[in-house]
Request: fold
Amino acid sequence: MQHSTWHDLIKQELPEGYYARINHFMDEVYSQENVYPPRNKVFNAIQTTPLESVKVVIIGQDPYHGPKQAQGLSFSVPDDIPAPPSLQNILKELADDIGQRSHHDLTTWAQQGVLLLNACLTVPAGNANGHAGLIWEPFTDAIIKVVNQQNHPVTFILWGGYARKKKTLISNPIHHVIESAHPSPLSAYRGFFGSKPFSRANHYLAEDGLTPIDWLN
Reply:
């Protein structure tokens, strides 16, 4: 982990020796099976978005489980890989809300202060949620708790039932929460489409005196 602020504060939220357990888990799974994202991208979300820069948090469940899709940022895939259905729906809602985005790699969002955090940071190839409940959730819950403790306002975007359960970790009244159905094709028409999360997040940022996110960048 490159960012010492994240490292030190997350560590305070975890049982003694938890980082060693995570390293042992990764040594094991990366040596035995085909796992996504590449090991050097597992902590990409907190490596790309420094704690003091976090303005928005978008919580996903686990990485994409197809070849070359996952890059350690929730919902994002490289531009040379086709956008999966959930990401297609995110871009469709963005187009209806703010405007058309010409590419689907979301790294530029992360660089602007959008923490793209999955609750589970690794996945076996072809096996969605295959590492759920094994090691990651206490670690990623600790990340949310650390953001919750910040004394500057943050907007949390919670898509779907799984992400919405994380609302219990967001207790600081200075923060904002935007909730809706998940962008998955199974649920997007049940309240994701039309929810305008991007303009709503920018409205909160402007209210708080913060620079809005250029979602089209």
Summary: The mean pLDDT is 96. The chain has eight helices and six strands. The radius of gyration is 16 Å.
